[in-house]
Design brief:
alpha+beta, Alpha-Beta Plaits, 5-stranded antiparallel β-sheet, 2 helices, globular
């Protein structure tokens, strides 16, 4: 499973995402693609999206804790690592 949250995606990337993902809200994409395909999508997004995209990607992995979080650019939340566990918290104002 892969969940992608973005501030803004380039039109070409957004069009490609709509092929395999459901977009329940603007710039939020959810898909149940297999793990090896999900890694290719993550690599594609990180390579083709500028920092202004504000990507936050949640990827299912088979090892504990069961997910990996990828971030790119400025988003409203920050990724923190606590004892090897990736967490997301709101940035301080």
């Amino acid at each position: 499973m892969l969940v992608v949250i973005a501030n803004d995606l380039p039109p070409a990337v957004r069009g490609r995402m709509k092929l395999w993902f459901v977009e329940p809200r603007a710039n939020i994409f959810v898909s149940g693609i297999k793990d090896n395909v999900a890694q290719k999508v993550v690599d594609y997004l990180l390579q083709h999206c500028p920092a202004e995209s504000g990507l936050l990607i949640f990827q299912r992995i088979p090892q504990p804790p069961g997910y990996r979080i990828h971030g790119r650019g400025d988003h409203k939340r920050e990724l923190v690592l606590l004892d090897g566990l990736q967490l997301v918290r709101d940035k301080d104002n």
